[in-house]
Amino acid sequence: MSDPIIQFDHFSFQYHAQSAPTLHDISLSIRKGEKVLICGPSGCGKSTLGHCINGLIPHSYRGESTGRVTVRGRSTAELNIFEISRTVGTVLQDTDGQFVGLTVAEDIAFALENDCVADPALHERVEKAAALVGVETHLSHAPGDLSGGQKQRVSLAGILVDDVEVLLFDEPLANLDPATGKAAIELIDEIQRETGAAVIIIEHRLEDVLHRHVDRVILMGEGRILADVTPDELLAGTLLQRSGIREPLYITALKYAGVRLTADQHPASLDTIRLSEDDKAAVRDWFRRTGAAPEPPDTPTLLQARDIRFAYSNGREALHGLSLTLREGEMSAVVGTNGAGKSTFCKLLCGFETQQAGTLSFAGEDMAALSIKERADRIGYVMQNPNQMISQTMIFDEVALGLRMRRIPEEQVRERVEATLKICGLWPFRNWPVSALSFGQKKRVTIAAILVLEPKLILLDEPTAGQDYRHYTEIMEFLLELNRRGVTVLMVTHDMHLMLEYARRAIVFSDGAVIADAKSAEVLTDGDVISRASLKETSLYALARLCGIEDGRGFVARFIDYEREAAHR
Amino acid sequence: MKPIFNYIDRPSPIHALTGATKLCCLLLWSFAAMLTFDTRFVIALAVLSFVLLRLSMIRLSDVSFLLKLTIFFMLFNNLVLFLFSPQYGVEIYGTKHVLFGSGRFTLTQEQLFYHLNQMLKCFAMVPVVLLFVCTTQPSEFAASLNRIGVKYTVAYSVALALRYIPDIQREYHEISQAQQARGIEMSKKESLVRRLKSASAILIPLILSSMDRIEIISNAMELRGFGKNKKRSWYMARPFRAADWLSMVFCALLLAAAIILNIHNGTRFWNPFL
After folding, report:
1. Which of B155, B17, B235 is nearest to A103 (CA)?
2. What ipTM is given for this predicted complex?
3. The whole model's pTM is what?
């Protein structure tokens, strides 16, 4: 076996600003050509581990450390960050934020420019790296013209211009839709085969990463390594359920059916898994046993959009003839690729933009004459990033802002804010500063700040973006609870789990129109819709096929009903 | 929403010049326009600058916001000049042709002529500045700053700031819409105190998210070797061509002409009243 490229030797680290260490006694080695997934819930220290590998720790973020981290046998503390970056190339999580160049070509060239590489080598190497990831036809494009997947390809090319030995990906799937995420994992796999570099992926979306082969999974929790095993061993074991990481859905389904998996069955992927006839029979049996949940009764129409057309001032028509209906008390999802018209539709609902043709009506009333403020009393809009909404220092004031702006007497403000804080589970924090909250809690504050205005419909843009399984569940269960209290919920999302588990209906946008409006289980098993909306077929459907269940769609629906019941038992 | 300060890509001969050439020409041109008050020369410069703007295929509608802003500041500036020294024209030109009024604020032909010159100078310079901004890519701008001796880390920061202006504008727009929905009122109907409070509800999230952005971008740059060496190469750097040399020589001649005119006139002012 070759020497390790990266080695951690009883390494611990504590940020200066923090009261407790973020990493405890980490020992770990990564060898040439290996592919390793570092997995764990938010706050487990996996990003900090990444910073230690690429040298941001100790060179940019200061703190106390014990033990050693070495890159090619030399301690990262003795090397400078530039020397480390010659060996370790990092693709950061936020593909927008790390776009340094004004055009694709310049962004790819950035590292070479800093190395004083002159023409013609400069242009040649940029073209070669661009071709490697398939963006060679976009060299003169600006970042704004690219899709999320293309941006990621450019970031990768910017690393590949140098012959690095380690490629480090920090949450590569965070901002991608399901189909693009799948393509990204395939691309990483191809690049690794072509370059022979070691690949380290930091990600909490286990099932998506395991779409392609991974040598080892390092499972982290509370700053420690909980497991350093093959994916097969991890999935056959029981560690995963306790770690706050979601196991692949097909594994959950197999467990519901009472199948006991072992590592030699290769459960890491549905392509490799070996199920015995008994196992398959158990799955079929479970399907027969469980009943379908009853259909919820029809309720009156709350929101109706008819033949909406809208074009931006630059002439781009974003919506052409969009129609949809939302019923009272529903909890549904709007899905589709970037540019399909989802955010434009939200802007029209809130009155930030006005459609050129078609009507929007709310509870039977045409909304054309309503101002932004009046619409906000009916439809509450929650932005994706809570940091874009929070402006007050104290939680109470933040939630009270909308009421105070409406000049409601302070007495009533207090009453309504307190009631809302209680509903939102923020009552214990009412006198805290917002800055002391976690991301998920901040999200809750922004929802509370909208809820206090008592809208009938809440519109949420990517409510769980960037959240691990535990926080995801927390936010979604909270929304479900609000929904049970009678608030209609419409979510704009890329997240297939969210659609499957929490949305009664999935309304699929493509090219400015609705191409499907059906139960999520139906949408996620419809090949045509899946490809047009850049979604991904759910692994449950593939499992059903594998087990010889003809009604795959029914199987998916049954699984969701069963899980919903299991969750609330 | 239109970006107010941005590169506009059109296939024109001005776009084809290198950034360094344009920066150099901008400096020479501005010095020439600042040096002299010779009305004939300044008119020629002003006419020429609009011809160049035309040549660059930048339409007035592309830059209307900036243009309006400059006209406003120009008028304001002239008003202040008049209020502080209403007889400055008389002082310069040595004659006094009263139009009307009396006392301190007597309006004279000389004063009006002086203001005319001020405005002409403004029209001789502003289009050229707009031309530079609209035809030079921020990264090329950085490369050209670096070429004339500014440290590349500084040059790049400037370019990066320019590049982020549209992003920040967009984010401001998004945040302000969401806050308006919560009842934040920015219109003039509100009192000043409430409007200031409202502004903070938009600016605070904007500042915080910009800080996040800065952290991400500086990490990304450092991880890719920014600041490693004293020098760097530029992907967008282009070799000088004949047109570049010609343009620079032409602008240098303009500056020379301005200096010669001043010496020939014996003063910075051309005096039609004598």
Report:
1. B235
2. 0.80
3. 0.84
